[in-house]
Amino acid sequence: MIFAIGGGVVWFFTSQADDPVGVVDQAGILLEPAAYAAIDEDRTPFVMFDSETAARDALMQEDIQAYFILPADYLQTGHVTLYHNGNAFNEIAGTIADYLRTSLLASGDPVLMKRFGNDNLNIAFQSLDESGGQRSELGFVLSFVVGFIFLIAIFATSGNLLQAIVDEKENRTMEILITSLKPTELMMGKVIGLVFLGFIQIAVWLGLVALGLAIARANISDFPSFVVGPSAYFVAAAWFVPFYLMVASLISAIGVSITAVAEGQQMVSIVSILSMLPLYFTWIIIENPNSTFTLVLSLIPFSSPLTMLTRTQVTTVPIWQMILSWLILAGTAVLALYLASRLLQFGMLRYGKKLTWREIRQQLRGNA
Length: 368
Prior knowledge:
Blueprint: H1 2-17, E1 21-25, H2 33-39, E2 46-48, H3 52-60, E3 66-70, H4 74-77, E4 79-84, H5 91-107, H6 110-117, E5 122-127, H7 141-170, H8 173-177, H9 183-219, H10 230-257, H11 261-275, H12 277-280, H13 282-287, H14 292-299, H15 304-314, H16 319-347, H17 357-365
Parallel strand pairs: 1-2, 1-3, 4-5
Antiparallel strand pairs: 3-4
Helix pairs in contact: 5-6, 7-9, 7-10, 7-11, 7-15, 9-10, 9-16, 10-11, 10-15, 10-16, 14-15
């Protein structure tokens, strides 16, 4: 899994590296792209456009990976705006800076040479579907912490569920429970109880975080301001509840299928790694919230809650992506609950013997 993830990231970055960047030179000071390419052949190629409309059309048709506008007042302000479709990396800023400095040096104009000595380059990244401006990386911090707390609570309480199911099956407490409950009812009760236990823990932790922030803000004059939009609360409620149900159901299915907690912990670690995927790619999500790679993370049930929570704080996520992501997650949660109920019905009275993959497939097909 680690090699697959690393290979995918390398492929994603290298596939974007050779795509050209569009240029709209309103200041009239840049070298022609061909002249610059002759000076520095290893850099990202540039394409000159006469107007922003032409550059935008090329970006929409994916002929270029991004385009930047050098405004007429660049010599006074040093401001440059880069427009992209969610695939712009910070490395492009360095490439643009080299292009500008090379052009300023090649001009021989004393005024332009003076600008070369002023290292006041300010590049604002703006996605075409964003309302505008430079993205603030601090805006997502608190929401990301909230998502991380959710993950900790989920897997901490799920470990208790795994221990309880294995113990009840092996000490035959399950025999007493099934005299009064159907397997589906028993599994639903365990999962719902786990969800409420987890939310009590989350409420306590978030309360402590809010208290700490209030104390820090009252006693530290220059304490940074964290603004969490309403979308963060919506995503936290709408995504993490089915995610909680999915993880709890999968762990319950693991507990029914094994005879020792140690075996279950090894299998649960796979679920944990998949759920932590957004943590491994934090800066890719922040810098490229609308890229294809980030969209894939938004659709995978294990990684969609944390990915969507982060994306909503740094960009405007299309409605269809949010609906599709939630439907896939909710459908997977229902499927996982069905899987856990079927396996509980079949494996609750098997003592000292774990379920094989062949028996699991037979049970799910209704042939057992």
